[in-house]
Design a protein that fits this description.
It is built from 12 helices and 2 strands. With about 350 residues, the protein is mainly alpha-helical.
């Protein structure tokens, strides 16, 4: 999705440095606000003692995303000069092709929310910190891609921070092994989701919004039997706030923020770079942890904070290492292209 007429970075070469800095700062701030608010909002919805139905909460957010995608599709036709959004007409064949990814996607968002439900926001960063480790492991097992020594070293730091964090949560008496278990599963699903996304992209013409539309349609369908099997219908029937507009407003808001995070993520990458986006995400996770500790008026030990720094530092270092490795691969390719062009020019003289 994009607003028509929004300037790209290339078109903004004539802008002053100050104006560019303000734009980038505004985009990064928007990403931080939406991402952090979404985490706290989901924690609020999932931590409700009156409603123990995490699958239904996740199902409803997927339903909101489908509705928003279709709504943006209609608006793009009504306001073609203002909103640009791809066509999202339902196609059963595309749904079937996207289904393997949707199964992984369901696992990712469900385990992610269950982790958040059991460990809270403060420990969430550490509890969900193994995505990078699983990226390396699954890339080798599934894609047969090897990883450099320095990247593996960064993964070792992340693993060390994870285990130290689990230990310190246990010392503090607030450890939930259930939450840790779901966090590990969520991390694995995040990595699998990235791998399967690449495989099914051709089915949606490489468009991330079409993928989101079909992915969430499949998720809504698959969640219904799961809600029945896990007995959440009974919890919903006896839920005292089922007719409360405030409750449904918060539920809908959670879905809107879930939809918006996809847009602001793409916006931040557009105005900065994928590497800067990853660094921003790491810094956001740090701020999110600090906000949670201050909000809950918690007292954390030095080693607890050390575990968070190890996880965030290892993730940042991994991002930097992979960025440097990509540059080393990219530069020789550019040099070979220039050499080839030079040879062609010489042959034509």
């Amino acid at each position: 999705m994009a607003l028509a007429g929004s300037d790209s970075m290339d078109e903004g070469k004539g802008e002053t440095f100050l104006l560019k800095a303000i734009k980038i700062g505004g985009v990064v701030a928007l990403y931080w606000f939406i991402s952090i608010t979404m985490v706290f909002l989901n924690n609020y919805l999932l931590d409700s003692k009156d409603l123990d139905a995490p699958l239904f909460v996740t199902f409803y957010q997927c339903l909101v995303t489908v509705g928003l995608c279709y709504g943006m599709h209609l608006l793009s036709h009504l306001c073609p000069g203002v909103i640009d959004f791809p066509s999202v007409k339902f196609d059963l064949k595309v749904c079937r092709e996207v289904l393997p990814l949707s199964i992984v996607f369901i696992g990712m968002i469900t385990f992610n929310n269950l982790c958040l439900k059991h460990v809270g926001v403060a420990f969430y960063t550490v509890g969900r910190s193994l995505s990078t480790v699983f990226n390396v492991l699954l890339s080798y097992v599934i894609l047969k891609q090897t990883t450099s020594f320095y990247a593996i070293l960064c993964c070792g730091i992340i693993l060390g921070g994870f285990w130290l964090g689990v230990d310190q949560e246990g010392v503090a008496g607030s450890l939930s092994w259930t939450g840790v278990f779901f966090g590990v599963l969520a991390s694995a699903c995040v990595s699998l989701n990235a791998i399967f996304t690449k495989r099914v992209m051709p089915a949606v013409d490489g468009n991330i919004w079409k993928l989101s539309f079909y992915n969430n349609i499949n998720a809504c369908i698959l969640f219904l039997p799961l809600i029945l099997v896990f007995g959440e219908v009974g919890h919903l029937v006896h839920f005292s706030r089922l007719g409360d507009p405030t409750f449904w407003g918060m539920m809908t808001l959670g879905g809107v923020f879930g939809f918006a995070i996809g847009y602001v993520t793409g916006l931040q990458i557009k105005f900065t770079s994928p590497l800067t986006h990853n660094v921003s995400g790491t810094a956001k996770a740090c701020a999110q942890t600090v906000i949670a500790v201050v909000y809950n008026q918690s007292s954390k030990s030095f080693l607890w904070w050390t575990s968070n720094l190890m996880v965030l530092g290892g993730s940042s270092a991994y991002t930097w290492v992979k960025g440097m490795e990509m540059k080393k691969v990219h530069i020789p390719q550019e040099e070979s292209k220039e050499k080839l062009l030079g040879e062609k020019s010489g042959a034509g003289v």
